[in-house]
Inverse folding.
């Protein structure tokens, strides 16, 4: 396991040096690819722009920060990314986490979080820590995603109903809704309902049966639904709006223009109070680890989903994600990562290369420069509807059925992760889910696969055989010992009862490889052969258990086909062990030990029976 | 794994009903056994009485509580215990934990902790939770024990030097010693030095070479060293003591007489303030879980060490421990469990049955009734010396060497547990150690044993073979997929380069069971046979990974010897899989798939080479 860290300086350097995947595809970039990328880039922008403003409010920031966060990702990823479909920008989950860790502060904290997360991701990429992603199983990911989606949707209930109160967690929000139920604004609620209906309706358009020519139009309408709903709602609000009455809660002024580049790690000066960067980092606390971790997990998962069987360069993907965050933080971005929705959209729009990010980025740039004044009239309810409809499909109910059919035990980590994420917060829930999974793995290893057999096939002298398989870990040490001790006890009993009865049983050997012979059940003896050919790992606790077996076993133990490494381990703990490395040697050794039994070549003499 | 919980009501009842192991041995109790038990019981009492007073002060309680805690264990264990050597009473580790959780309160809290721990232990015994002990590996136990011994010894440094200040943790104590170094009392320090020297000297007596008659005297002196040192120190203090000057810090008044039985779960009335039982339980907090857990772990470990190869009834041992605590709590006992030192002593004194506990208990009873006034003059330094010398041998340095030789990775949980126990407290350190161990197990499973081979032995048509072994867990899912994808890529490359070179390589098959033949390396094809006969467990994450392999593999996959359970799992996730259950079937199936290759029986035609 340690050789993962055991690399030469040159190898380290070749890993650490930045790679530019753009060099691989840029030279052969064709007009056809450019056309595909342009369409995909524009389509993604149409979803990204309304989503990003909504996610900014989810993260507790002013709307323009959403656009700032959408600006840099596409450009940087075009240079460093390997997966054409991925669009790096604000995502629901990371926005929620950003809110969790920067709640009650100002935008400088979110930008600092983006910067530090980016650094952490680059470091994780270079240090090959991407393998940590493997410690999170699918049931845990699914429970986490579903709970996060529910948490996000719940946080939007305020926006949907036109309420405003402070809340952080899932339970908090619903308690608040119940308390403030009398303040529900009818106009906002009505608009939300309308928006959601239109969104669901438009989404289902692309699944309708239609002639091929119409099919494309339907598909495009379905894809453009977020933009359409937001524009329609804004138009409605514009006409309803009067200077004195405000029937709908609006987005209001958005600072237009590009973000001015600034260093993300300066002290935060917030009018009345300033916070030094150390205090800001302390405030962000565990978020500095959780945000990059979750970003990496979801980004690798998305990249894997779109890799189409090609081996994924996870390291490169993680570094690309990190650089996007670091560069973004200089342009006032909050933490960003890939979004599954946008990636799927890009894929469906016929993306060819990561260059699609350029076009998306350009459109965001134009929006920031010219379109922000138009956003004033967009109702908050419309944005809340966009988020809610986007995340609700992330709730995966069907997986419970799948798990139940395929592997029932896997329901436990799913249920644990889901409920802990909702009750303790998504980030704590995720870690607890991984712990539950690890505990189940440990429990599995308390009863390792351990075939035990009394071999009396006529080929070898009769003996007990044990076939350990895979790894023997500390959790199973006791099981191994007690199983063998029980064997020894039952054998003594058996011999006694046999001596009393002195009856002759005839059984069939169930060994398929040798010819099937019918033999008398021999006196059960106390020779134990440990077949080690499939034994790959033994830890210290198991070694001590084996040592006790060796001391307590009333008879002889032979170790068959033990690898050199295993031999070394056994010899370190015990003395005078007998090894056999070939069938012949085993036959000879066993023959010597049970001298009353003639050597196996004349089996008829042993059994007194004729071969079948 | 779930069948552990899957028991019939009758089986549950037979487990839940209390067993009385005393019935097994009481009928045949002989005079010889009684003599052995009497000697052992008296010897243990000689160690137990001074130790228990010392441990009471370790737990932050008045001296008489140590005697109360020693009173009941022996009597109850004689009825319920199965291991003659074990003596249930105060132990260093549990006293330390009691101090951690009841520090700053009064004795009622410790008694309540004893009661609740007892209940928890009985419940754990009935629920068969003893298997949880297996989750703690030997390196973790060793790191924990060593750190606990150092923590306990450190806590006695105050007593050794005659200092008095408040401290809780290991680091706390040493910082305090440095701060208060000017207040060191010379007389106490000198006495401590003397006591420790005498204790070490007397301990080594039993290892001296001597004629047989003298040997017994030496052994007895060695065993009685705690009592001897305490008596000598007390005599010295008696003569040094004057009414006006106190050169040594003494134990002082000990309440004599038996503890009056009382309900342990009543509110604590402490002169000025009373605490309801709910508040007391909240104060004890996680101690209500940690104390029984640690008690169970150490008790089972001790019982196992003295089981001499007989199968240990761990459930019965845990229930016996629990009942000792519950009954003890009605007589003002703080939490108790077995002690390794006393058990080893009992063993060496020739104990025969658990009845030895009766005699020990009787001697404690007599002490409480008549001897307590004599304890007034025992110097605190003498008790501190007794504890320090008793725990220091628990620090196991040698294990580092053993682990390094046998299994280097196991040094990590040892080091982690040891350092975390010292820095965060023993109870947190233990849990973190288990977590580190589980994480290492997970990391191991990121690279599961996975033999990959290109089989071209002349017996079966050439094919790729993969031999998964044991369990495939989520952590390894990615590894399996990437390894197979790499195989497919390299195979495509190989075929290409081979077509270019068109050279003929001759290799030797390394299969030992079939006759060794030299064959031409055939065109590497894309038939994959998954040999499942040694595959015992697949979880959902791995199933999804297998599904991706099936979708991405450019060729055919055959599943050989999949068990019914595995087939069911595979069929739940994928469709149209090909299974083969016998060698012949596999041969036929593979033959059909690679029609260009003649059937294997005329191998010479395939290879164009003669057999060796």
């Amino acid at each position: 396991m340690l050789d993962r860290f055991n690399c030469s300086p040159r190898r380290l350097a070749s890993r650490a040096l930045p790679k530019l995947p753009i060099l691989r595809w840029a030279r052969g970039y064709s007009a056809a690819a450019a056309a595909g990328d342009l369409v995909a880039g524009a389509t993604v922008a149409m979803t990204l722009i309304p989503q990003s403003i909504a996610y900014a409010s989810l993260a507790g920031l002013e709307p323009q920060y959403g656009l700032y966060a959408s600006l840099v990702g596409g450009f940087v990823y075009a240079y460093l990314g390997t997966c054409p479909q991925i669009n790096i920008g604000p995502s629901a989950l990371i926005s929620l986490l950003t809110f969790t860790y920067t709640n009650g502060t100002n935008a400088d904290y979110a930008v600092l979080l983006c910067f530090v997360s980016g650094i952490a991701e680059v470091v994780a990429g270079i240090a090959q820590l991407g393998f940590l992603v493997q410690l999170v199983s699918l049931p845990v990911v699914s429970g986490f995603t579903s709970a996060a989606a529910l948490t996000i949707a719940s946080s939007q209930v305020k926006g949907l109903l036109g309420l405003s109160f402070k809340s952080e967690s899932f339970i908090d929000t619903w308690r608040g809704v119940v308390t403030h139920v009398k303040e529900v604004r009818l106009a906002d609620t009505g608009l939300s309902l309308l928006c959601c209906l239109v969104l669901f309706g438009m989404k289902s358009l692309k699944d309708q049966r239609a002639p091929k020519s119409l099919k494309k139009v339907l598909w495009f309408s379905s894809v453009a639904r977020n933009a359409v709903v937001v524009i329609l709602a804004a138009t409605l609000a514009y006409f309803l709006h009067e200077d004195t009455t405000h029937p709908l809660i609006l987005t209001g002024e958005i600072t237009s223009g590009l973000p001015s580049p600034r260093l993300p790690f300066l002290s935060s000066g917030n009018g009345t109070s300033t916070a030094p960067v150390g205090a800001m980092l302390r405030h962000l606390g565990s978020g500095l680890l959780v945000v990059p971790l979750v970003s990496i997990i979801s980004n690798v998962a998305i990249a894997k989903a779109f890799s189409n069987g090609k081996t994924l360069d996870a390291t490169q993907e993680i570094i690309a994600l990190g650089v996007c965050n670091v560069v973004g933080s200089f342009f006032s971005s909050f933490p960003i990562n890939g979004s599954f929705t946008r990636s799927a959209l890009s894929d469906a729009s016929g993306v060819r290369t990561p260059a699609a990010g350029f076009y998306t980025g350009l459109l965001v740039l134009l929006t920031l420069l010219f379109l922000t004044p138009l956003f004033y009239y967009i109702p908050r309810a419309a944005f809340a509807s966009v988020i809610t409809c986007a995340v609700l499909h992330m709730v995966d109910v069907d997986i419970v059925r799948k798990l139940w059919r395929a592997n029932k035990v896997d329901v436990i980590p799913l249920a644990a992760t889901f409920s802990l994420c909702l009750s303790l917060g998504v980030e704590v829930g995720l870690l607890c889910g991984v712990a539950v999974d690890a505990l189940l793995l440990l429990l599995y290893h308390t009863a390792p696969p351990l075939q035990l057999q009394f071999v009396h096939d006529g080929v070898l002298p009769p003996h007990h055989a044990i076939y350990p398989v895979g790894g023997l870990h500390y959790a199973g040490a006791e099981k191994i010992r007690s199983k063998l001790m029980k064997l020894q006890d039952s054998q003594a009993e058996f011999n006694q009862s046999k001596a009393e009865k002195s009856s002759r049983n005839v059984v069939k050997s169930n060994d398929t490889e040798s010819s099937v012979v019918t033999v008398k059940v021999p006196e059960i003896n106390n020779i134990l052969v440990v077949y080690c050919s499939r034994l790959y790992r033994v830890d210290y606790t198991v070694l001590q258990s084996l040592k006790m077996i060796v001391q307590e076993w009333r008879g002889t133990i032979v170790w068959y086909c033990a690898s050199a490494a295993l031999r070394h381990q056994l010899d370190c703990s015990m003395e005078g062990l007998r090894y056999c490395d070939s069938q012949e040697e085993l036959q000879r050794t066993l023959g010597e030990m049970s001298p009353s039994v003639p050597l196996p070549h004349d089996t008829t003499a042993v059994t007194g029976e004729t071969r079948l």
